[in-house]
Amino acid sequence: MLALTSIWTTILLAAAVALGPMAIDMYLPALPQIGADFNAGTDQVQFTLSIYLIGFALAQLVCGPLADRFGRKPVMIGGMLLFALASIGCALASNIESLQLFRFLQALGGSAGPVLGRAVVRDVYTPREAAKILALLAGMMALAPAVAPTLGGFIVATMDWHWIFIVMAVYALVMVAVIAFGIPEPLRPENRQPFRFCHLMRNYRRISTDMTFIGYTLTSAAIYGGLFAFLSGSAFVLIDVLGVAPEHFGLYTAITAAGYLLGNMASIRLAGRYLPDQILLYGLATTLTAGATMTLLAYHNIYSPWAVVLPQALFMAGTGMVLPQTMAGALANHPTMAGSASALLGFIQMTAASAAGALVGILHDGTPLVMATIIAVCAGLGLIGYLFLVQRYPAPGFEAQGAGSN
């Protein structure tokens, strides 16, 4: 077993947490082909993404408290086994409805990785340290959106989209072995919480009335909405509208993932000189600039893959600065119920992501404008959350000079 503070433990956690995002990113290049194979409309195909986000959000509300009661490892292992079985079901789906069902089940299992990855970091580190470790974790995870769409595009071009889900199942089974034999249980016995309905409701009520948690969570959820607006619409915009070949789709999304990685690296570098809330503000300003730029380009009918990808790369750089700070800030006041706090954070994030993704699918008009506008609006909402909530109720030690006064 590795030490919990070892860099190798962080790497293994990143690999486990990446399972959930990989289930989104890897199959994006296949969306047009899935629609053609099942004779399904854009909204029906896009719903395979939205229903994944819905399942992901709902499952976290149970997954977090289960991990607070029984420990992080058994819940994470059980979730990944369910993910593997559901992935095989996706590969064998014979119509769009069965694919949607198995995507929902896939999400129930896949939620364990991100929820418990955040909880493990909070178990081991202080809030200020957690912001830096979460940025490092997120930087490693940036490899998933960089590599997964490229691999998915290659599979679509050379074999068949069904094989994407077989690869997901194999990856999940490998991670089961890694977690079982490589990572020790981080939850201390004295921090285990009863798994009783009244106790869960009391914990969730306590977390959901914490204004610090609300501020960081809503800010994070808004930026998540912008991120998933791009994930939901990018395949249709880049492949169907702008003519990008499916096998090249991953190369464009790798550029946006590189922006995310640069944002994470900047977050880590700036942590030694600036407070987390200062880094958060810089990240939010970056996302708003990027969203507005993409919207203006689309509004003026400048249709090019680069008019979408380069602003989105800048948006992702801002996202890489925002998410570690908001996640650490949301969990800061709840060290003894980090699983439940992480679950509620994830539920709200994924609810916002699902809503933004569904809007892109419903309003898609054959141009990049709808997607770009939703991204810009989400960035604006994130900045509003910071100005009206985070500045008034900062996490301990996170606030900039002069902040924190009501």
UniProtKB/TrEMBL annotation:
Q: Per its UniProt entry, which superkingdom is the organism in?
A: Bacteria
Q: Does the keyword Transcription regulation apply?
A: no
Q: How does this protein lie in the membrane?
A: Multi-pass membrane protein
Keyword field contains Transport: yes
Q: Where in the cell is it found?
A: Cell inner membrane; Cell membrane
**Signal peptide feature range:** none
Its Gene Ontology cellular component terms are: plasma membrane
The GO terms this record gives for MF are: xenobiotic transmembrane transporter activity
**Where's it mainly located?**
membrane
According to the entry, every stretch annotated as the Major facilitator superfamily (MFS) profile domain falls at 9-394
Instruction: Give the residue spans that cross the bilayer.
Output: 45-63, 75-96, 102-121, 133-157, 163-183, 213-239, 251-272, 279-299, 305-323, 344-363, 369-389
One record GO biological process: xenobiotic detoxification by transmembrane export across the plasma membrane
Which key words tag this protein in UniProt? Cell inner membrane, Cell membrane, Membrane, Transmembrane, Transmembrane helix, Transport
Family (UniProt): Belongs to the major facilitator superfamily. Bcr/CmlA family.
- NCBIfam families listed in its UniProt record: efflux_Bcr_CflA (TIGR00710), PRK11102.1 (NF008314)
Q: What protein is this chain from?
A: Bcr/CflA family efflux transporter
Name the lineage: Bacteria, Pseudomonadati, Pseudomonadota, Gammaproteobacteria, Pseudomonadales
